Amino acid sequence: MTSEARALAAQLIAQLAKLDHISLGRSLRAPPGSVGLYLAPKACCADERAFLLGDEFAHVHLEDDCSIHAILPEPLRGAAIAAGWAEPHPLAGQPSVSPDTVMLYAPRDGEEVDMLAALVRASWRNAQGMRSLAYRETVV
Q1: Ordered per-residue pLDDT tens for the chain, 140 residues
Q2: Between vectors from CA 52 to CA 3 and to CA 105, what angle results, nearest 5°?
Q3: CA 34 to chain CA centroid, nearest Å
Q4: How many CB atoms are located within 10 Å of the residue 31 CB?
Q5: For the residues of 43-100, what is the DSSP string, one character each?
Q6: ∠ at Cα 76 (130, 85), nearest 5°?
Q7: What is the CA radius of gyration of the chain?
Q8: Are 68 and 116 in contact (CB under 8 A)?
Q9: How many domains does the chain have?
Q10: Model pLDDT, residue 10
């Protein structure tokens, strides 16, 4: 991955780090060098499907291809896939992997950083138990 791609992924992480109740850390699921996005336990919903593992609801493969794994509930997941922003994670639905897990493609420019941030914000809301359909319009 190019330095430009890593810079865009770092912009995305910086945007998301400003969300309430968020902490960044080493991902529990992704290879070393990936940045996990964690929701503070007091803000987490009780639905295990809303998380990758533990309190981690998304991560960015910063040292690899700069793609993002996140949890997107329906109908947003289907809309993001249909619009070409995401694809189902190949292990989605397997034991210990939420069926709502997707891979979001790495951003290629600032506009894509903003779109991906909107999708990950939807994942953040979902992890708090706030399923909002408002983001469906952002992907179609």
Answers
A1: 689 999 999 999 999 999 999 999 999 989 999 999 999 999 999 999 999 999 999 999 998 999 999 999 999 999 999 999 999 998 888 998 999 999 999 999 999 999 999 999 999 999 999 975 444 445 54
A2: 35
A3: 12
A4: 10
A5: G--S-GGG-SBTTEEEEE-TTTT--EEEE--TTHHHHHHHTTSEEE-TTTTSTTS-TT
A6: 130
A7: 13
A8: yes
A9: 1
A10: 96
- Amino acid 83 reads A
Q: Which tokens sit at 91? A: 């292990």
CATH number for the domain spanning 65: value is: 3.90.1150
- Which of 9, 13, 139, 10 has its CA nearest to residue 76? 139
Domain range for 102: 3-139
Q: Quickly tell me which residue has 């922003």 as its tokens.
A: 85
Distance, in Å, from the CA atom of 34 to the CA atom of 124, rounded to the nearest integer, reads 18
The whole-angstrom distance between residue 100's C-alpha and the CA centroid of its chain comes to 11
Measured CA angle at 42 (ends 57, 71), to 5 deg: 15
